[in-house]
Amino acid sequence: MSWDDDRMIDAKLFGCAKAAKIHATGGYRPDPVELSDPLEWNRGVIREFCSGCGSLFELCRSGAAAMGELGGFQLPDDLSDRYLVVDGCSCCDAVFTSVSLKRIKS
Prior knowledge:
Number of strands: 4
Strand content: 15-25%
Strand order of the largest sheet: 2-1-3-4
Shape: elongated
Number of helices: 3
Distance between the termini: 57 Å
Helix content: 25-40%
């Protein structure tokens, strides 16, 4: 029996939980202090803030470049005083339509 078969049997016997999406109400604003904190992930180069649900993520260089591409802009070499803003993310039920690059206000 394969691992997938085991998982299917487990789900039939015990049920399974699906990750609930956060209901995005919009209008969230990032905390400047939290944006200015040092990045925790060793590959992180920038933070991404979702204005739909208020979630804050760290992105690696390639992830940040992909977001810039979606937004139609190139990222500067120095990202230490910048963050990305999106209007929907993988954690919420908002539809992703835009990404922008902002400067962290001190």
